[in-house]
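Hi, here's the filled form for the chain we discussed.

Project: internal
Contact: R.S.
Residues: 460
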Amino acid sequence: MRTPIQDVDLLVIGGGKAGKTLAMDRAKAGQRVAMVERGMIGGSCINVACIPTKALVAAARALRTTRRAAQFGIRTGEPEVDVALLRAHKQGVVEDMVAINHKQFLDSGMDLVIGQARFTGPRTVEVALAHGGTLMLRGADVVINTGTRPALPPIPGLAEARPLTSESLLELAALPRSMIVIGGGYIAGEFAQMLNTFGARVTMLERDPQLLGREDPDIASAVAEIFAGEGIDVRTGVAVSRVTRNADSSVTAVLADHAEVTADELLVAVGREPVAADLGLDTAGVRLDEQGFVAVDDELRTTAEHTWAAGDVAGGPQFTHRSLDDYRVLKANLAGARRSIAGRLMPYTVFLTPELARVGLTERQAREAGREVRVARIPVATIPRARTARETAGMWKAVVDAHTAEILGVALLGHEAGEALTTVQTAMLAGLPYTALRDMVITHPTITEGLNLLFAAVPD
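And the returned structure, exactly as it came back:
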């Protein structure tokens, strides 16, 4: 007997930031809403990405601070990492946020469906329910918000060696004594430094000439110097040709020049791939791009009528705050307004220690765009608040238009840099010249006060 189709006003496939926020919003407004989620209540950010990793970053920072307590006049014993307590800390943060999200979902009035959805036609899915059975759903409007998962590069022997990913690493029962990290991007950097702080001997293998390939070389070099100073073995311009899991459970990475690196475990952090291939999107008339992401226009419309995509699965910057803004765009466009993602000023912070906060163009991007620029740099050690915290590593950099004094972008590598970034972003959105931040009266001593110093360093 054919399963009857249930019609809803809004059908959301995947409960990431954009999808879950839109689903709750529309359900509270009185619409019939169904959200299908494979089982990760709250999305990947809460369960396996931003929240658990930043909880562990906080633990690593607490450990670093305790180790140097004598610098602040405090005597302590040698701190130890208790893996059980560390996991309990991480899991406690995650479980609290999952519980909050679950309650919000139910309170909104939406239908939360746990299962795997697959399109059977335009705006119609069959859901294999987690508890057994199937359900057919059809939406007047459909939003695809299924996110991404860790990607494994096609390195011979890698899959068979059972590598860790940014998700499986969070469930380790014991800390390895040594770790190979394949990758030199943001996720790789956060995990490499965290593991090093917890006591692992870390070797980073990056095939590109520098770490953090999207950043200017001077910023990437400053990060590499910090890592090297902490004892991380950073190797750039190296390619891994083969990986082997040895008889003693260790892992060996063979490089293109035949050199070998062996460690207790290996972490692959070379990016994430879209969760889209198994959704039957071709049946729904939804096209994928060359990388397998859902193709959307500037209003987040897919190639199918009344079918939208948001968040990481739609390509572009993979940030939770980007996904939240996708929700705003979808909310407006579903209501008949015209809101676009074109020209969004997208900030981000890499939660290294110290943090790397960025918004706007890099110096390289600005010059490639034909802009004549003036560049300012200051060492973080010149910022009084950094000195009081004894966190003087890093540098701040600003790029301004040589003719208009427009702020084109900043890269702030330093203590609590993410907390200062929004001030710059606000000035950029307001179209203020760099001199507004140079001359603004800012509370002393704060990290944001460093903006006075940074923009005073812009050359005439």
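Let me know if anything looks off before we file it.
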